[in-house]
Amino acid sequence: MNTSTAVTRALSPAERWYWIIDQLSTLNVCARVRIEGELPAAVLRSALGALQDRHPMLRLAITEEPSDVSGAGPRFVPTSNAIPLREVTLSEPDDARWVREVDGHELAEPIDWRSGPLARAVLIGQPGQIHDLVITVPHCISDGTTALALLRQLVRLAAEPPAPGPSPAEKESVPVPVEALFPAHYRVMSGALPDRAADDGDGPEADPGEVGRLEPGKFVPFDQRRTRLLHRSFASPVLQSLTTACRREGVTLHGVLAAAMACAVARDAGAPAPAHFAVGSPVSFRDELERPVSEDEVGCFVSAVHSVVRYQPDDLWSMARFINRDIAERRQRGEQYSVFSLLADQGPTGVADSEPLVQYIEEHGSFNFFVSNIGRFEFPGKLGAWGLSGAQFVGGISVVGYFASSVTTSHGQLSWNFTYIDEAISRERAERLVDDSVRAVLAAAEAAA
What we know:
By secondary structure, the chain is of the alpha+beta class. The chain folds into two domains: 10-160, Chloramphenicol acetyltransferase-like domain (Chloramphenicol Acetyltransferase), CATH 3.30.559; 193-375 and 395-448, Nonribosomal peptide synthetase, condensation domain (Chloramphenicol Acetyltransferase, 2-Layer Sandwich), CATH 3.30.559. Helix content is 31%, strand content 23%. It has helices at residues 13-24, 41-54, 97-106, 144-159, 236-249, 253-269, 316-332, 338-346, 355-364, 427-448; strands at 9-10, 28-36, 60-63, 75-78, 85-89, 120-126, 130-138, 211-212, 227-234, 276-284, 302-310, 369-376, 382-383, 386-395, 403-410, 413-421. Strands 5-6-7-2-14-13 form a six-stranded mixed beta sheet, with helices on both faces. Strand 6 and strand 7 form a beta hairpin. Helix 2 packs across helix 4 (144-159) and helix 5 (236-249) crosses helix 10. The model is unreliable at 67-71 and 196-206 (pLDDT under 50).
């Protein structure tokens, strides 16, 4: 694991940006798994301590105080506080309670970054020794893969407690920021502000014209926005049928999910074909860095690219193929790294000077709805006497869009967690967008069968 020799360092431009918008509107990443079997809270608290010992980033807080070394600015600093565990005990079975906990608390309440640490957990117990375990981390140190990997490590540490080891003071110190690991030719790029101009994939003369976005029902001030959650999933038989259809049509699962969301947004807007809409796709670059970064390393190793796709309501597969091709071409050009140069060159230093960039992204950003798909994530189905199922992640939106989804394939299930900004998108409208997205995918899979 990459480390520095310091026990403190300044937040990088990207970390600082996520930290800033988290203060405007909570930007957390949550991971959940169901555990069936006896699980005392004391065992979990001990495992949380062991997890914290393993990861320097989980032994940190953030301070805005000036430093004698590098001057003012947010910095990671050590904290001795333990990862807090909240317990929820149910008297009756409620399989959907974890969704309400994530929706009502974990996505709504920010991590206390001033006191640290930058993580928390909740254990929801119901009759029959059934537990839902959720870990929550801020986006400044986590992406969906990070959150799920931390949850996987936590469950393993609870199932098989480690032997006593060295104290945190003897362990490695704060890892360098992700920007320090970029391939050399992507460390210095143009810091141009984003826009939605893009080729629609039909050749050099193609011009998508006006690019559609998801229009909010009302403007909600940036510091009053709240991410809400609608959970959907595809069980194993449906997932297998969908996977087979994708293979037959030569597309990835991500492509068809993104196409379905674009179709739902277009239909919601009453747009005629062939209108164009911009859909965002956060992509991982862990394997592209100067050294590969494993799933178990803590950090945010994703960046978004966008695809301006033609709305073809009767041909979801063509939309999906274009999205796949477009993402691959944009990644080949290194577009996933350009936002980091923007943040280094023009990013705000704090909440006080963040409004110009936030407002620009609101009005002119590349996209305002997106799908974050981490693909297949290996999570044990059994550990000792425990049965494990339903591993998945959910990401907040903050001020970078209005409608999104977090996709995980694990334990033979596809979890499609949709999020939206409350009041800007009414719940009725959000449910309509979600159900339309799901219907489009299922109909395409059935037609391809």
